[in-house]
């Protein structure tokens, strides 16, 4: 007889319709339209994260490394940040950030050097190789994303983007400290 965790892993996820029907059976006040939107967004997010993780893995990058590369690129040229800034931005402890930077420096994706103007401060900088890895990940992601949205017209894409941005703003306004990390819930 399989262990419960094995049985759970083998069980297929119910369809959205089946999930909503089960929720309605147990909680009669449920709005099925709201639940369909929220459940679809959750499933889409989970599956997209898996797809992105597979893509970065083909490049020899972990999701954790991708997050650092992304943060450095978004910071703008010269693509530098302090490890404390990175840790805070990514919701990591300083020790976890140090470990991540060590690994990435050994792989040639970033450098870590003392700030010449403030010898106490360390600067983490994106290398040419790190930027190339980021660009290749972006190329793969753009192909995946174009395929994902291929059935939507330009107008539908624009409308979807606007609606999702409104939802995101509502959550951000209601939970301004919930920057996408669950560390406060661990």
From TrEMBL:
Protein name (record): MarR family transcriptional regulator
Domain of life: Bacteria
Pfam families in the cross-refs: MarR
InterPro entries (UniProt xref): ArsR-like_HTH, HTH_MarR-typ, MarR/SlyA-like, WH-like_DNA-bd_sf, WH_DNA-bd_sf
Membrane-traversing stretches: none
PANTHER family membership: TRANSCRIPTIONAL REGULATOR, MARR FAMILY (PTHR33164), TRANSCRIPTIONAL REGULATORY PROTEIN (PTHR33164:SF104)
Domain HTH marR-type: 34-169
């Amino acid at each position: 007889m399989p262990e419960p965790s094995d049985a759970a892993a083998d069980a297929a996820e119910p369809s959205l319709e089946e999930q909503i029907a089960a929720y309605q059976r147990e909680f009669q006040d449920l709005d099925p339209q709201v639940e369909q939107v929220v459940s679809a967004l959750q499933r889409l997010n989970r599956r997209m994260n898996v797809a992105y993780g597979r893509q970065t893995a083909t490049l020899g990058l972990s999701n954790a490394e991708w997050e650092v590369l992304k943060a450095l690129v978004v910071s703008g040229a010269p693509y530098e940040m302090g490890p404390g800034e990175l840790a805070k931005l990514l919701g990591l402890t300083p020790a976890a950030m140090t470990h991540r930077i060590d690994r990435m420096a050994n792989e040639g994706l970033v450098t870590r050097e003392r700030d010449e103007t403030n010898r106490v401060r360390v600067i983490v900088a994106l290398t040419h190789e790190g930027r190339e890895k980021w660009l290749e990940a972006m190329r793969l992601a753009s192909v995946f994303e174009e395929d994902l949205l291929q059935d939507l017209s330009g107008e539908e894409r624009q409308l979807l983007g606007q609606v999702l941005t409104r939802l995101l703003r509502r959550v951000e306004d209601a939970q301004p400290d919930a920057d996408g990390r669950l560390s406060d819930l661990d």
